[in-house]
Write a structure and sequence with these properties.
About 30% of the residues lie in helices and about 25% in strands. With about 150 residues, it is of the alpha+beta class. The longest helix is centred in the N-terminal third of the chain and has 13 residues.
Length: about 150
């Protein structure tokens, strides 16, 4: 090793760390947010506090402090499996009408002898901009009486 390099290293080791205050700020922000902030969010938080700093410098300092932001992930991954509860239910309102041997069509039956045997439902989602609210409106149609009976908001 050259003599000049040796003394240059010795001189640089005795210097105080110029980024000590920044490291403390970054460490405090990281712990205040429970480790959820990465270098980008910490950069924006520092800028909001008035410290103008580049994101690359924040990234380098966080790496030197071994601070890495946690990523929130789903506990259970999405599964499109429907299971036994979602079986296909036959349409009981359809009646098969044979026209010829090879040709048939379905005819829907909406008449019933019993009360509450055939019901129809309809749902509406109404958004009211003036109040910044939305209303869920559900109604039931009774086919025997041919009128609406149940309304839910």
């Amino acid at each position: 090793m050259k003599k000049s390099t040796f003394y240059e290293i010795l001189k640089s080791q005795n210097k105080p760390d110029k980024d000590e205050n920044l490291k403390k700020l970054i460490f405090d922000l990281f712990n205040y947010n429970k480790g959820l902030y990465g270098y980008r969010r910490i950069t924006f938080a520092l800028r909001n506090k008035g410290t103008m700093i580049n994101h690359k410098k924040v990234q380098k300092l966080m790496k030197s402090l071994n601070l890495f932001g946690k990523t929130l992930r789903r506990k259970n991954k999405y599964s499109s499996f429907k299971g036994d509860a979602h079986k296909n239910i036959p349409n009981l309102l359809l009646d098969k009408e044979n026209i010829t041997e090879d040709f048939f069509r379905y005819k829907r039956i909406f008449s019933s002898d019993k009360y509450l045997k055939i019901l129809g439902t309809d749902c509406y989602w109404i958004q009211i901009k003036k109040w910044r609210k939305s209303i869920f409106f559900s109604c039931s149609w009774f086919w025997k009486q041919r009128d609406f009976r149940v309304f839910n908001f």
